[in-house]
Amino acid sequence: MADLHLSTCKSHEYTLINFICFLLASFSSVALAVFISTTQTYFITDVLQIGENVGSYVGTLGLFDEILSMCLVPLMGVLADRFGSRVVVSSGFLVSGLSLFGFGYFVRTNVVPQMLFWRLVFAAGLTASLGILTVMVIEMNHSGFDLKAYISGFSNSLSPFDRAQEESDAMGGCDGADVHENYLERVDNLNKSRKDGTKVSYMGIMSGLGAVFAVTLLLRLPVFFGKTRPAGSAMRMSYYTVGVGAIVVAVIMWFCSFKSESDISFKDDLFESYAQDNGIREDLVSDSDEEYFSSSTVRETYWTSLKTGFQLSMEDPGILIAYLSGFISRCITIVITLYIPFYVNAYYREIGDCTKSSNDKVDCPESYILSSILTGVANLFGLLLAPISGILVDRLNNYTILISIAAIISTTGFLTFCLITTPDKSVMIYLAASMMGSAQIMFIIISMTMISNITSEDKYRQREGSISGVFAFVGGVGIIFTSFVGGKLADFSPKLPFLLVVVTSIVSLLAVLLLNGHSLKSLCGFSKPSERIEEQDASNLLDYASTRT
């Protein structure tokens, strides 16, 4: 049976320092994302002194933020392919830190264009640092790194090649499986051999810690600085402080991140493996030969990559459901980080508890505190559920049940939140917030684990870039959808964005039940896939793949 291991031909040493740096990147990038989302409402009201159409302003900022991010995601993949994830992630934190200084110093009078400009600069940096986490997860999973082995005194439990061989043996040759088998069962079986859920949960744990850190400490910085200075100045000092932290993280990333080619890029590995298998010395390979492998016949364009990622999701429900789960997780993230503070701020202003003092100090500290508590509870439960979710994924090996549980928890939590009329006096609102955070982390870990499982298959290994890129793209669509539509709805009622998530959660539940075992093309009555994806590959790749044993 042909067995092509495109991304494991060259083994790179993945150290404990690299792993810790990956955890720090997960922690810091989410902390920055949560900080900017939760403070934008207060920046508009306290710094710019704008009190009307705040929901629309916040939604518009989020919309353009995510549009830019979606445009930059493929570029980050190209940069990671060219320079490695270390350069991308460190540059991202540096740009994010500098943009926070820009917020504090240059934004003085309006949302557009001043605040929008620096939000876009921040978005560029965050896209690099947050978007590259998918690549860093794949680097870790495909490197054979085992934390337990390190603790026991071994540097690596398996080389990347041995790990891939073990997975192939455990699957009994997934490429030869019946094409009519249940798609989700195939992904379930993949996870039985890989156990990627636990590893992905590492990122979930650190992301949860980063979110909790942001809402419990960073969000309270304006209150801390507001004890001795006006509200606007307190907010600016908060942005300066967080900016310094982001720059420090950038320096750490530069010196400690994993230094290698991205696993999403397979060109160089394929070229060297081809040369070795055919007895070609590297120093005897001509420039024209290397140029051939580097040409457009091997390396796809951005648009072709996106098209391929979407086509694969039409033919494989496992990929489509992973995309949908990523979409829902982004929707929940935006509502927790953006619309909980907006709802609380609007509530306190409506009941008249926010009064402007004569010295212009922070006039509504209760709003900051309750916002930080509610978002903190949500992210704390996300943190606590991260390892449990990873264990459940690896133990149950049934994505249909897992996604159904996540959708039910999400629907219940957000619907309960909408029914509460006095958030400052209700105990149920903390239960609702905990369910929101639990659903969020479940969708994140489920979707990331599915992507890691699916891209481990030989038939998808050379499509990691396409699948990961579209996964990030769809997540961006979820953020745009929730930011823009939620912002418009929030101006009518601060609770409507929460109902938006209720609807999307119900849709996800129906989708996983409907698509289980069926491709979208078969459900729509389209013809069977005709190997169009494979025909797009260079003929030399196909010929080479068929000779590998």
UniProtKB/TrEMBL annotation:
An example molecular function term from Gene Ontology annotations: transmembrane transporter activity
Entry annotated with the keyword Protein biosynthesis: no
Annotated localization: Membrane
Xref: PROSITE patterns: MFS (PS50850)
Membrane-spanning residues: 16-37, 57-80, 87-106, 118-138, 200-219, 239-258, 320-340, 368-392, 399-422, 428-446, 467-490, 496-515
Domain Major facilitator superfamily (MFS) profile per the UniProt entry, residue ranges: 318-549
One term under GO cellular component: membrane
Keyword check for Cell wall biogenesis/degradation: no
UniProtKB keywords: Membrane, Transmembrane, Transmembrane helix
PANTHER family registered for this protein in UniProt: MRH DOMAIN-CONTAINING PROTEIN-RELATED, TRANSPORTER, PUTATIVE (AFU_ORTHOLOGUE AFUA_8G04850)-RELATED
Name the record gives this protein: Major facilitator superfamily (MFS) profile domain-containing protein
Phylogenetic placement of the source organism: Eukaryota, Fungi, Dikarya, Ascomycota, Saccharomycotina
